[in-house]
Amino acid sequence: GGQQQRVAIARALAPRPDILLLDEPFSSLDVELRETLPRELRDILREAETTALLVTHDQTEAFAMADIVGVMQAGRLHQWDTAYNLYHRPETPFVADFIGQGTRIAGTMVGQGRVRTELGLIEGQVSHEYPSGAEVEVLVRPDDVIIDPDGPGVARIEERVFRGANFLYTLALPDGTRLLSLAPSHDHYAPGVQVHLRPAFTHLVLFPRSPLASHADPDDA
C-alpha cells in the first residue's frame, strides 16, 4: 500500500529539485495510509532538505504535512499561517468556517475582551479590540462550550454523534442558533433534552457583525 506514491516521490527527488509540487498525492489511498504516509513523506523531505508545495482539499493532510498552510477561495489567499493559527486565530470569516468545526454566534461588546451573547457573558483575550456596544460575531469551537448544570447558557440537544472518548453534540440556543459541543462519552445526554452551558474560552475570535451575515451551520463545517 502506497508503494506507487513512494516510488513516484523517490523519482521526483532524484534530481534534487529546489521545490517539489505535490498535487493531491494521497487522494487514492485508504484511510490508514492517508494517516501514515504524509508523516513518512514529511520526514523524507526534511532529510532531503527539499521544499514542497502541497495542493490538497484535505485539512488533516495539510496539517500533517505543512509547516505553513495557505487557505484559498476563488483565487484569493485568505491566510498564510501555521495550522495552529489557522484554527485558533483565523483572520477572516471564511477561514473560521472552513477550518475545523465551529459556529459564529451574535454578540455585543460590553468591555475589553467581554461579549454578551446567548451563552451568557463570554470573556477572553482578543487580538483586535472593538468598542463597547459594537455588534460582533464570536467564533465558537466544540471545545469552547461545556455542558454544565450550573452554566449560565441554555440549549436543547438536537443530535449526538459517538466518537469513542467523546460525544459531539449539536445544540440549539433559544434564538435558533446551532452550535457544537464535545463532552466525555460517559456523560451522555439524549436528543431533545435541555442542558445548561458554560463558556470555556481562553481567547476570543471576533468579526464585525453584518445584518446580512450568514452564520456557519455545524453540518457544513
What do you see in this structure?
This protein has helices at residues 3-13, 31-48, 59-65, 83-88, 93-98, and strands at residues 19-23, 51-55, 69-73, 76-81, 103-111, 114-117, 120-123, 125-126, 135-140, 145-147, 153-162, 166-172, 178-184, 194-199, 203-204, 206-208. By secondary structure, the protein is an alpha+beta fold. The two termini are 30 Å apart. The model has no long low-confidence stretch (mean pLDDT 89).
Roughly what percent helix? 10-25%
Strand content: 35-45%
Could you give the count of β-strands? 16
State mean pLDDT (0 to 100 scale): 89
Shape: globular
- CATH top level of the largest domain is Mainly Beta
Q: Distance N terminus to C terminus?
A: 30 Å
Largest sheet, in brief, is: 5 strands, antiparallel
Per CATH, the superfamily of the largest domain is Nucleic acid-binding proteins
Question: What name does the CATH topology of the largest domain carry?
Answer: OB fold (Dihydrolipoamide Acetyltransferase, E2P)
The domain count comes to 2
- Report the radius of gyration as a whole number of Å: 21 Å
- The oligomeric state is single chain
Strands side by side in the biggest sheet: 7-6-5-9-16
Low-pLDDT segments, ≥5 res: none
CATH architecture heading of the largest domain: Beta Barrel
